[in-house]
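Worked Example 4.2. Consider the chain below.
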Amino acid sequence: MNKKDQFLKYSKNLELVLSSFNKPVRLVNKHTEGNYICPIGFTNHSIEGLNETYSDQLSIEHAPPRSLGGKAICLVRKDLNNKSGHENDKALIRYIETTQFKRGESTIMTRMNLNLPRLKSPKAKFHIDSENRLNFIFNNITLKDHIGESDLKNDYQFKFEFKLQEINQAIKNILLKIAYLHAFKSIGYILCFGPKEIYNKNYKKVREQILNSDKEIIPIVFEISRVKKFDGVAIITDPKEFASIIVSYPLTLNGITDYVSVMLPAPDSRGFSALELIKKQGNLDFKFQTLPQIEIWKNKESAIYFYNFWKHYNGIV
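Applying the procedure from the previous section yields the following structure tokens:
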């Protein structure tokens, strides 16, 4: 889907959502030819925002990043996809590499200090074998051509060091951002607005967290697994105290696919209570109901479909 199609469909969805409730919503800088609210920055844009010379430009967002198999998913204000965002994407890639490495499914490349005057520090590939042993191999290097008899007599030793990427707030933020954008793609602007309060305060907090990768504002609950439970958006229906939205999406690297499941808050007054409870108690079994794929820009019924879907299974609190 190109940028114009993205704009027109979500602009129509926004119009239908806002006209479905009997509360006035004032759009900042409202435009006559169409309005698109950036799902992260929450700023309103006209179709001129598709122009590359426009100061408030919209750009296609890939979620996950293309390097992890992601596809174009929606439009986001271009200035939000800044250098730090690219650095965080790289950190996520390194984290997935680390996850695969620990499972013995892929290698990690690093340089080794061989302490040999005849050979500079070469690169080596490290991997964990089926017996949980750490192994390494060199490319195009035969050590016997570089290690002499004198080296062996002198108790030859070599050194290596590599750092595995640990989970941090920035990586959690990216996993949250991807899940939120997938939810926005499937649910539309009903995720941001509601019948009781004009603006959904829970998802305002989610956007605030996405824009602040250096601190924890909300609980972020996620799981990475080779097991595919589902792919898309669902709601947890049982037990009721865990009522929330859950998003599952694939990450593919080195030909290996992992599935990430991220919990998002309930769209009603229950908010983050389920996330806080699960984070405290640990992973628990729950039942969920997947959201069907619908064209959320077709009519009012489709535009607010998620509201009725949630109400049917979990009620509105």
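The mean pLDDT is 86. The longest helix spans residues 83-102. Compare this with Example 4.1 before moving on.
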